[in-house]
Amino acid sequence: MECAYYLAPSVEKHLDFDWLGFEKENLRQSKGKPSKVITLGNSEFFLRPYGSSSGYPFVIENEHFIISFGEFNNPNFFVKFKSVALWHEGPQILHQQFLTWASSIGYTPLQDERLSRVDTAFDYYIPEIDFCEDNIVSLSKKDSRHRQDRKLQTLTFGKGDIVLRIYDKVAEIEEKSKKTWFFKLWGEEENVWRIELQVRKPVLKRFGIRNFQDLAERQGDLLRYLVSEHSTMRRACADRNRSRWPLHLLWVDLQVQVDSFCGLGVHREFDYVALLEEKVIRNAISIYGYTKQMAALKCVKHKQTDIEFYDAMKYLYRKVKQVHNQFSWEIDVEKKINKIRLEQ
């Protein structure tokens, strides 16, 4: 899970960014230490000698979180929740733990957090694989297959906002992640495959999932769409239309598991504010184009070779003010307000 937090520091207590910058620079110039243990508030973290690829100057990490943050970033904290903590604690508890830590360094929420990525995984013991990429019927246009020693290891469908992965989790642990604690959690050390559903912000917003409270209420709605409408696993039969093939028993069970998640029956949430903002941007683009035309007219009229943007805006304002009529302004604006309200 990944989430952005908008936090405000208190006057009495806040992070010492000068000290953090000093420690980070010392660490960067150090030859032997890739990180340093520091105490911030009620927790210990590794301080990394680098910032994040998304522009945060500081990155700290412990067994629960990878936290990127900066004094002037907006949002000022971006948190990746580690899988080991999610599997053992759950997202709601970790969210509260992060807020408790933030409070211990003098920060309080300025507005609701914003989820930007949620991955949901279902692990299955599968002794014999009886499916391949042709058994998956998906709305995703891109897919890929990875094999090792001529054995299927990973199927991936989609890229970007929705990604479905079906892969040999035991092989992934042995070759890459080394998360052997899963073996104890499963009670198995072989033949465990993972069905992983990765969803990013645009799709989360479609289901009205913006924060952790929304996720608790609506995750079931999102997952039911993903495993029933977006992608399914089918058993091959004589029908040429793969979407009419019967569901694979693995997918039947997956849909049963998904039904246990909470939901409100949402299929798509209408985001009225986002719609209005889109219209505002379109109007701004049009006005910007007219401003360029006005700038060019002024240059030709006054035999100028160029003009600054703000000078062009002031010129446009003066000309619009010349044609402004307060009486017609009030009447026409009221008409347009009613038109916008009633035509949605």
Instruction: Give me the count of strands.
Output: 15
Structural class: alpha+beta
User: Taking strands numbered 1, 2, ... along the chain, how are they ordered across the largest sheet?
Assistant: 3-4-5-6-7-1-9-14-13-12-11
Amount of beta strand: 15-25%
Mean pLDDT: 91
Any idea what the shape is? globular
> Span between N and C termini?
34 Å
Written overview of the protein:
The protein is an alpha+beta fold and 344 residues long. The protein folds into 3 domains: 2-111; 117-258; 272-342. The chain has helices at residues 17-29, 83-89, 91-104, 169-177, 181-186, 201-206, 212-230, 249-258, 272-301, 309-323, 326-342, and strands at 2-5, 7-9, 36-40, 43-47, 58-61, 65-69, 77-81, 107-109, 114-125, 136-138, 143-148, 151-157, 162-168, 192-200, 231-233. The strands form 3 sheets. The protein has an 11-stranded antiparallel sheet with strand order 3-4-5-6-7-1-9-14-13-12-11. The protein has a two-stranded antiparallel sheet with strand order 2-8. A hairpin with a 3-residue loop joins strand 5 and strand 6. The longest helix has 30 residues, at 272-301. The protein is globular. The chain starts with a strand and ends with a helix. The relative contact order is 0.09.
